[in-house]
Amino acid sequence: MIKTETIVDVTDLRKRFGQREILKGINFNVFSGEVFGIVGPNGAGKTTTLRILSGIIRSFEGKVEVAGMTPQKARESGLISYMPEDTFPYDRLTGIENLRFYAELYARGDKRKVNEYVDTAIKIADLGDRIQDKASEYSRGMKRRLIIARTLMTSPKLAILDEPTSALDVESAINVRHKITDIAKEKGVTVLLSSHNMLEVEYLCNRVVMIEGGRSLMEGTPKELVDKMGVQNLEEAFIKMTRLTQT
Ligand SMILES: Nc1ncnc2c1ncn2[C@@H]1O[C@H](COP(=O)(O)OP(=O)(O)OP(=O)(O)O)[C@@H](O)[C@H]1O
Q1: What span, in angstroms and rounded, lies between the C-alpha atoms of 144 and 149?
Q2: Do residues 133 and 95 lie in contact, with contact meaning Cβ atoms separated by under 8 Å?
Q3: Which atom of ligand 1 is nearest to 45's Cα?
Q4: Is the C-alpha dihedral spanning 56, 43, 199, 231 positive or negative?
Q5: Could you point out which of 97, 98, 203, 212 has its C-alpha 20 to 30 Å from the C-alpha of 11?
Q6: pTM of the predicted model, to two decimals?
Q7: What is the radius of gyration, based on Cα positions, of the chain?
Q8: In terms of pLDDT, which residue wins out, 245 or 24?
């Protein structure tokens, strides 16, 4: 039997902003080496969940562990790397300057590591000669690839990517998806990503959790969820599940 290590454990996660309860019971586990998707419509609570897991939001109720630690401790230990949804490279710097800037930040004075991180990031970004151009001259897809390279350059234990392909055209989104699956396989990075695109998640993720209205509805492989609901695809499974929980 294959031994699976639990990297993320979320049990009955709840979060209030003022009087409003935004997360009302989120449950899921992510295992080592998976590409795991949090999927749900706008406002479901995906970003809030990821911000808690990345150690940015520190007040919440319930159990949240990353590699057996609090998210904050895991982040400080360099185990987590987080890519927020609305993040961009520095326009005035070239691609390579952007990567070097972050590599120096992450390597904390270790020159060998700086070069190693930059080399890894160049491969992930896969921008060819354009890596020498200013980021202001990049397309949206190129910028996103640079940011993903920045996020993954240290080969973290857990990479948290908030809507990595949002606002990308079909071809750029496919390219970014390939990058994510490649790096997960090659570097053994566990990836936790959010999306409201069920078809994308079905293609990309080993397992998913569906959330709506701050609650997790079901968790499993896309095929398990589709079979369980007796439908054709994840989108239909989500709609059917939502109807069932509302009746
Ligand atoms: N800092 C905050 N203060 C108050 N309410 C917030 C805050 N952050 C998020 N919310 C609310 O929490 C709910 C969930 O937001 P969240 O961004 O987590 O959803 P999401 O699933 O990521 O949505 P989207 O797909 O649109 O990005 C929304 O109703 C949002 O308005």
Answers
A1: 8
A2: yes
A3: 18
A4: positive
A5: 203
A6: 0.92
A7: 18
A8: 24
Sole residue written with tokens 């392909």: 165
CA of 47 to the centre of ligand 1 (A): 7
Q: Which residue in 167, 83, 82, 183 sits closest to 125, CA to CA?
A: 183
Q: Which two tokens stand for residue 244?
A: 């069932």
Count of residues making up the chain: 247
pLDDT of residue 1: 43
Ligand 1: residue whose CA is nearest its atom 27: 42
Split at pLDDT 50, 70, 90, the class of 242 is confident
Task: Decide whether any atom of ligand 1 lies within 6 Å of the 88 Cβ.
Answer: no
**Tens-place pLDDT, residues 6-56:** 999 999 999 999 999 999 999 999 999 999 999 988 899 999 999 999 999
Atom 6 in ligand 1: residue holding the nearest Cα: 17
Ligand 1 atom, smallest distance to 211 CA = 21
Instruction: Please report the domains of the chain, with CATH numbers, ordered by start residue.
Output: 6-246 (3.40.50.300)
